[in-house]
Write a structure and sequence with these properties.
2 domains; Rossmann fold; six-stranded parallel beta sheet; 15% strand
Length: 432
């Protein structure tokens, strides 16, 4: 099939490369000419394990193309995926849908035959209705169908999630479109993915409800971790104990900093906004948002206690600053709040992240990026494990710190407290 992906961000590029690998002809479109030129040279703008190889393979084979010509790309394609950003509006809970609607307006000018137009971006309920209204102002309804097909890709595991999905959700009542899309996804269905055909509005809500529920699980275990610290209980024991219950499941029950990234923060806010507009209260999700917003403050208070409220001139090292491992995504990462706060208190901060230096910290004095773990940790007073990158798990902290008395605050519980005690390292974990 001939596919057009509008947007070469995380969803558009990963989905486009994966669809191409399944044998489809895919054009990824973006207005950013510089990005398109880089992609043509297999220079990938995001960090995602395996994506660079997948893009290069399918680009070389001619199945994957890149263009800044939306009109031409739409005309050549049977199915058009809208994969643009839907960030939270400034100082609001409401999702900014300007890019979605802008894409819809450009699509309608270039429909020359029947097209399936798919919202793959995460959008509030009734966005598909609005896209349909925009296009139908200039195009006969018989020439297009608007479908909701939400993505469920985890950053760091996106390619695997695409190839081996739990489910494929298709929101349409149009039999023709449903048949075509079921055929498109047949290679994934044959591997065990459940194919769910539902209404367009239901598909839109499924995505938001899924992310809100997962955010709730994270926030829940973080609050349980707070209780564990008061009661001298290992939160990992509690996580295992409840996670083995099939009704609950063990995934997303790892205590850590506040959830971040491109999905959970904006999507929990957006579903609350949708509910508000529908005059419905989502008190549980509101509580999740409030709890998560306070998470970084709570962890900063504990840092102050660990340092006996003597933060000034302390050498503090952050191991990892992205919101999670295996991604370069800094959006809503807890480090964006923690590092400036500690810096303002007079701490001298160094950080190392496998994905490199972050522009978010460039304006801060006494905040320095180090290009390896050894240089980042050397002579530190406090080492904070912020992100659970695998390369942090087996390092010899005593050897690289080169200092007798230092403290480790493990926000991901990747180290054994027993081992730390045996090595005479002052150690603090979460929920213990």
């Amino acid at each position: 099939m001939k596919l057009c992906m509008i947007g070469t961000g995380y969803v558009g590029l990963v989905s486009g490369a994966c669809f191409a690998d399944l044998g489809n002809e895919v054009i990824c479109v973006d207005k950013d000419i510089s990005k398109i030129n880089k992609l043509k040279k297999s220079i990938i703008p995001i960090y995602e394990p395996g994506l660079d190889e997948l893009v290069k393979k399918n680009f070389t084979a001619g199945r994957l193309k890149f263009s800044n010509n939306l009109a031409e790309s739409v005309e050549k394609s049977n199915i058009i995926f809208i994969c643009v950003g839907t960030p939270t509006k400034k100082n609001k809970y409401e999702a900014d849908l300007s890019q979605v609607y802008s894409a819809a307006k450009e699509i309608r000018n270039n429909i020359n035959s029947f097209k399936i137009i798919i919202n793959k971006s995460t959008v509030p309920v009734m966005t598909g209705d609005n896209v349909e209204k925009i296009i139908s102002k200039m195009v006969k309804k018989s020439l297009f169908e608007v479908v909701s097909n939400p993505e469920f890709l985890r950053e760091g595991e996106a390619i695997r999630d695409f190839i081996y999905p739990d489910r494929v959700v298709i929101g349409t009542s149009n039999k023709k479109s449903n048949k075509i899309l079921k055929n498109l996804y047949t290679p994934l269905i044959s591997k065990g993915a459940k194919y769910i055909n539902t209404s367009r509005r239901a598909a839109e809500l499924i995505k938001y409800a899924s992310n809100a529920f997962l955010a709730t699980k994270i926030t829940f275990i973080n609050e349980i971790a707070n209780l564990c610290e008061k009661l001298n209980i290992k939160v990992e024991d509690v996580s295992i104990g409840i996670g083995t219950d099939k009704r609950i499941g063990g995934r997303f029950l790892r205590a850590g900093p506040a959830y971040g990234g491109s999905c959970f923060p904006k999507d929990t806010r957006a579903i609350v906004d949708t509910a508000k507009k529908s005059k419905t209260s989502l008190s549980v999700i509101n509580a999740v948002i409030n709890s998560n917003d306070k998470r970084s403050d709570l962890l900063l208070k504990r840092i102050a206690l660990i340092l006996n409220n003597k933060i000034k001139n302390k050498k503090i090292t952050f191991l990892g600053v992205t919101f999670k491992a295996n991604t370069d995504d800094m959006r809503e990462s807890a480090s964006l709040k923690m590092i400036p706060f500690l810096n303002k208190k007079g701490a001298k901060i160094r950080y190392y992240d496998p994905t490199g230096e972050k522009i978010e910290f460039n304006r801060l004095n006494n905040v320095e990026f180090k290009n390896n773990i050894k240089n980042a940790c050397e002579f530190s007073d406090l080492i904070i494990v912020h992100t659970e990158w695998n390369e942090f798990k087996l390092i010899d902290l005593k050897k690289i710190v080169k200092k007798k008395n230092f403290i480790v605050y493990d926000m991901r519980n990747i180290y054994s407290p027993e081992k730390m005690k045996k090595e005479n390292i002052k150690y603090f974990g979460l929920g213990s």
